[in-house]
């Protein structure tokens, strides 16, 4: 057997997929609404909110459709390091491009 | 899965035909192409990578010789090769003289070829492919056909890089680092070829990395726990992870730069960029620094890709030739894991000169200093392993011993470069060239030579000639130091990199009375370095001849001529398809030399089931 | 010679080889798209204030595409589930849906790309701009020789900044009509391809790379659905694993779009 010993029926999977799809639809709707609503000054807060909702969507797809929530520790370890390095790439590059000695021109 | 019977090279005496051999399996003899070109056997692929990489190393070496000539004798035609250069490369080498553009092309391609087509394929792909499955008791890599694809992607990438020399305008000229906007504004196609070649090479490395990691995790033989792995396997494991996670951002950046080149986008081109006095057509709004970050995000972990497999080889050779276990196995494991992790967060120490603020510079300085700790631990364990050992001198051991002080010099000279304040002065000088060449040339390359001499008997059943091996070592050792040691002096005196005239424009002779020009003594070193480089090239001739001659005429040896403990030495020579007739059972650690409680000088790692080639003795003399 | 754990799980890790292989590959893909997303963030953060476009992409089309991909992720999972319960017919139906949904996605994407390529911004010699979709070029239209006229359906503006934020009330209130422009008045004419500005550059690159992944995934799934499904008869367990592994890749491609859609279309 190449999967865990949980009983597998089409019914259970169809039910799971239906529920996930409904939540995904709602999330998409919320993102679109947030995009056109007036939230805070400028774009920063709006972007943060939209990305947070997108993260929920991503969590559902990854957790359930990719069965990441029931995956083995080995996969988690690989992905954890990946996430750490992506955060490093984003964060350190952003920091490097915004930290300047006082008085030097900002590009 | 079909099993192809692979023998490479085909030197074993053919078995006399037996009637009873033909029942059961069909032994279909694969044709030339399936055996040597489109093989999915890890050993064949390892040798393919090895031979191709050695060819590229030689080619890269020639590029360096041409550059050193130009540096020592600017504007003078290259002797012997001048007319050939003029004929093949056209106006860039008019009259056999290396023009500044051609010098830049040689420089960019020397670096690219040595790193991506020479050292990485040899250290990681060649030795890793051949040895790792054997060392862990696996029949092959987890994904043999993907392995084959990775070699062919590498080969194609090499072809693209090589061909770029011969297109109008020549090869890439913007350094192996390909910084924008220079890389985009040079009006020739060499850069585009470079980018396409890089995408192919990165693809090859990614496929290889997936294979290595999956193989080491999934295909260890029964009893081969993580802490019983030979350290060479640990080093390859971490190297594979570095390749897997660090290469993709460069692939992304390469695509972006290719779009800047070919489609006129402005990912890395700032607004208002002027080329040759005219404001450019591009839309602007991009950031040259973005390229640097994405490049060095790979660029720094890449240097650990260059060194870790080499360190792995040195550990194996030292353990074997001191006849005692390696000192500090656990420290070595934790250190290599630490190096792998930390290597991802030190990259901007290549960018101290870009006007970064003090906070971020200090962060990268700190992580860079910290990463030197596990590196030193690894080197210390290697040194301490010699203490109390019964040291056996042979060619692999000479190269492994030579590695130690050379990597020591390379590593220690890196420390001022990690400190932001000192690096501001030393950046882009010959000090840097000396530092990284010490680590890679008398460092990694020596370890790779050790590996060739060491594993040659497993691949061929014969040893390479010992006398000429020692000649190769001593001459290389002397000349390597003569080439690179003076460069520290030149760099500290202020000679900057990538000057096609060798610094003449900044010399005291050219501008007498100016402050801090390059004195005659520093300029003279250029000539000495050229002669030393020629000597270094001559020193490789015994190696090349020895390598090919010994395949047919070397001293014949048994399956374990070095009396080694690891599994790779307990297969037939050469290992057949599938490596082990029955999966071995691992019962002890990798370096049980002269272990208490055992007779004889070494105890192999595994016990083999009775029905095999008679390796089931527990002790050997 | 057989490679162990191709179908059976290795006891200590609990997985089979291909599953580890695909997750490792996906980790590298996370770094690849992560690199591109970081490029996006830096380019946008470093852009001149007011010069980063908003509302240049049709949210309705983007939403439809998002729904198509989400649905295809579902059908992919159900195709694998059908294999697990050994229902070959259902597997065929579900993955046929996956392929059709993917093709629909690509169709809409092509339409969106085409729309950008026929959308022009013309800078006139007098410093004003005409911006809109191409209606027609006159027979003798030649930019170099400065003959003929070109007709755009759009608007004329004085400041380029007005073209950036199409969500702004001024832009929404603007009327779109036909503008005929003589070639002799044109200083520069450029369509909204990747070269137009850094937004279109990163948009085309990221969605283009994503589309390449969709094409690749579709080809693999099509192969497994078609000629590759012969393995169902000889080794259904191994075939199911292949469906699972290709499904994981497909879900990852959907994951990328889950972030790409809001980032490009909604912010």
Provide an overview of this structure.
- The complex is a heterotrimer of chains A (107), B (621) and C (267).
- With 107 residues, chain A is an all-alpha fold.
- Chain A has 3 helices and no strands.
- The radius of gyration of chain A is 20 Å and the shape is flat.
- Chain B is built from 17 helices and 6 strands.
- Chain B has helices at residues 32-37, 42-72, 82-89, 100-136, 144-163, 182-185, 190-218, 231-263, 288-322, 329-342, 358-386, 395-412, 415-418, 420-426, 430-460, 466-492, 520-553; strands at residues 274-275, 278-279, 462-463, 555-556, 585-586, 606-607.
- In chain B, a hairpin with a 2-residue loop joins β1 and β2 (278-279).
- In chain B, α4 runs parallel beside α7, α8 (231-263) runs parallel beside α10 (329-342) and α12 packs parallel to α16.
- Mean pLDDT of chain B is 90; it is low at 1-26 and 611-621.
- In chain C, 57% of the residues lie in helices and 13% in strands.
- Chain C has a 5-stranded antiparallel beta sheet.
- Chains in contact: A-B, A-C, B-C.
- At the A-C interface, α1, α2 and α3 of A face α1, α2 and α7 of C.
Notable characteristics:
heterotrimer; A: 107 residues; mainly alpha; disordered N terminus; C: 267 residues; alpha+beta; five-stranded antiparallel beta sheet; 13% strand; elongated
